[in-house]
Amino acid sequence: MTNSSQSEADLRTGVVAGLAAYVFWGVFPVYFKLIDTVPPTEVLLHRIVWSIPVGAVILSLRSQWRELFEALRRPRVLAWLTLSAFVISGNWFLYIWAVINDRIFETSLGYYINPLIYVLAGVVFFRERLRRAQLAAVVLATIGVLILTLQSGSLPWVSLSLAVLFTAYGVIRKQVAIGAMPGLFAETTLLFPMAFAGLVWLMLDQQAYFPAQDSTANVLLLLAGPFTVVPLLFFAVAARRLSLTTVGFMQFLAPTLQFMTGLYYGEQLTAAHLVCFAFIWLAVALFSYDAILAGRRQRRALENA
User: Are 46 and 223 in contact (CB under 8 A)?
Assistant: First the structure.
């Protein structure tokens, strides 16, 4: 295979993998709606526990055990991964709780504004400079959130918390030189003792939904592991084969599908929501256009170097 053919094959693989990851994350609320009779805490515990065997299989297939063990031998890396594990588990719990409590629109809003908050985190923690279009996108998003807050009478805390938690997770993981899959396996392994003990306690106290008489519910809870790990595997494949601009543009597919899922489940879409989302969508469009231009400028600079 020639280098050109290989590049085209890598590009196709990356696009398919990226679409698979973001489409899955976009329709993820459907899964939690199917098990909305199970308390969010128990769903979270299942998500952690059943991620371990699935992650172990994937690490074996990808021959990444050495990378994992080398990372865990360093106390600094272990400390950062412990912190990231608790942050991402908080994000997972809030997301599950929001979906089960009919707040999918708020989760969608949170993941729309997440890239913009990530840009602000770059300014605060890594002294990056905002381009004019990025600054304008952040201002538009802020206006949208303020309008929703003023018209609804309450701060969209679910959206902001999801965005801040996921941004914090990204900033923490930026401190650790470890791949996506080994990193997730390390995090779930660190959380496993507490999650397993929690499930056992719920079962002994007869508060656990699992195992239920409904075999479908049991299967769905067991699938919490694959549904957590497999999309991340697709994302890892896409991230290695696609430019950051392409991946960044594709990430808005997930909240768009979440928004459509909220419509499907009949959540109330108020005028304040519509105005807020209009500002957010405009900010996203500006943010994406700026990212495309920046990518083109970077490619020209590399070609002329």
Answer: no
Q: Report how far residue 143's alpha carbon sits from residue 276's, in angstroms, rounded to the nearest whole number.
A: 8
Which whole-number Å values give the CA distances from 281 to 163, 167, 173, in the listed order? Answer: 16, 19, 28
Question: What phi and psi values does residue 130 have, to the nearest 5 degrees?
Answer: -80, 135
The two most distant CA atoms of the chain are separated, in Å, by: 68
Please tell me the distance from the alpha carbon of residue 67 to that of residue 17, in angstroms, as a whole number.
23
- Per-residue pLDDT tens digits of the chain, which is 305 residues long: 555 555 777 778 888 998 999 999 999 999 999 999 899 999 999 999 999 999 999 999 999 999 999 988 999 999 999 999 999 999 999 999 999 999 999 999 999 988 888 888 888 877 778 788 888 988 998 899 898 888 877 889 999 999 999 989 988 988 888 888 999 999 999 999 999 999 999 999 888 888 877 788 889 999 999 999 999 889 888 877 877 667 777 888 999 999 999 999 999 888 888 999 999 999 989 988 887 887 777 777 767 76
Its pTM stands at: 0.89
Q: How many helices (H) and strands (E) does the chain have?
A: 14, 0
User: Judging by beta carbons within 10 Å of its beta carbon (0-12, 13-18, 19+), is residue 132 exposed, middle or buried?
Assistant: exposed
In angstroms, rounded to a whole number, what is the distance separating the alpha carbons of residues 31 and 6? 36
Measured CA to CA, the distance from residue 271 to residue 196 in angstroms comes to 44
DSSP assignment, residue 128?
A: P
Give the start-end residues of each E strand in 61-176: none
| Contact status, residue 294 vs residue 62, Cβ threshold 8 Å | no
What distances in angstroms separate CA 261 from CA 30, 32, 79, 178, one per listed residue?
7, 12, 37, 33
Pairwise CA distance, residues 156 & 98, whole Å: 12
